[in-house]
Every structure is written in C-alpha cells, then in structure tokens.
Amino acid sequence: MARTKDFDEDEVLQKAMNLFWHKGYNGTSMQDLVDGLGISRSSMYDTFGDKHTLFIRALENYKKIATNEMKTLVDNASSAKETIRRMFEYIIAELLSDKQHKGCFLVNAGVEMAPHDAEVNKMLCENDRQLEHYFNEAIKKGQNSGEISNEQSSHALAQFILNTIKGMRVTAKSAADKKVFKDIVEVTMK
C-alpha cells in the first residue's frame, strides 16, 4: 500500500528551485536538498527521482512562471512599443527586487549546464524561441502599423532584444543600478 505524502509537492519544488537558483546545480549537494527541502532523502527520490530530474523540474517550473508573465504582458498591451517597454519594465523590477543578485535561473542554468547537458540546452533553446516569438509578433505588429521601422527584420530585432535581456540578467548578478538598466532600455527602444 502506497504511503501518503507528508508534504506539498509544489512547495517542495519551489524550495528546490530557490536552492538551485541560489547555489547552481553543481553547488547544490544532495545534503543541501535534504536539509533545504525539509523531506527525507527517500521521499525526495520517491517523488522527484535523482538530483538532475529535480533540477529539470525546478527549471521547468521557473520557465512556466516566467513565460506566463511575459505572455500576459504581450496579450494586454495596446501597442508594439508598449509591449516591449512593459516587458523591460517587468524584468527591471524583477532584477531590482532580487537582493541576493541571483540573476535569472534560466540564464544561470544556461551558463552552467547547457554546454554539457543536452536536456538543459534543449529546454533553454525552446524558451529562447518562445520569447523571440513574443517579441517578433510585437515587432511585426509595430512594423505593420508604422510604429517600428522596417529597416531591420522583425526576427533580427527580436533576437537583439532577447540578447539584451539576457545581458541585463547577467549584469544584475553583480550590480543592480536602475539607471544602468533604464539607459539600456532607452537605447534598445530606439
């Protein structure tokens, strides 16, 4: 007969996400997980499998939350430039509120794991394509209305904006100066 879990799986997954986000995959030991999640080692293995599987689930959880926020911003903006500016403002607010300077969990995972972990690499590439799609759609809308110049392709501009955001997220790991981020956004918006 299967035992009833004595913990909330979503809550434990959130704790795992925060541990991996703060310490990285390689910096988080199994003992860190046992101590930080507040569950036994056997419960962790029974529920989440091994450390790598737990890391992937935590990364997927973060991706889902972040993607839903971006989609909401895209869906609720009235103009292309407003959509892009709202995305930047959301990201800046997120970065400035992070007193631990963790940066972005996805970007951190990409730097640490993507070069030698095909599963992480694939997930991050899919996430990049999804974000590029959101930006591309907003830019095309702006180009069709004359709000944004057609001098560059919408796809190239979307890639540029995504790369700018990733750069901002890396910068936030060592500094969180609102003026720096605002200057980057103003130049990008031009």
Walkthrough of the structure:
With 190 residues, this protein is an all-alpha fold. It is 74% helix and 0% strand. It contains nine helices and no strands. It has helices spanning 9-23, 30-37, 41-48, 51-76, 80-97, 105-112, 118-145, 154-171, 178-189. The protein is elongated. The N and C termini lie far apart (63 Å).
State the distance separating the first and last CA atoms: 63 Å
Structural Rg: 19 Å
Helix content: over 70%
Label the structural class.
mainly alpha
Determine the oligomeric state from the structure. single chain
The poorly predicted ranges are none
Biggest sheet layout: none
Count every beta strand, where a strand is a DSSP E run of 2 or more residues.
Answer: 0
Write the layout of secondary structure elements.
Layout: H1 9-23, H2 30-37, H3 41-48, H4 51-76, H5 80-97, H6 105-112, H7 118-145, H8 154-171, H9 178-189
Helix pairs in contact: 1-2, 1-4, 4-5, 4-7, 5-7, 5-9, 7-8
Comma- or semicolon-separated keywords:
single chain, 190 residues, mainly alpha, 9 helices
In short:
The chain is mainly alpha-helical and 190 residues long. Helix content is 74%, strand content 0%.
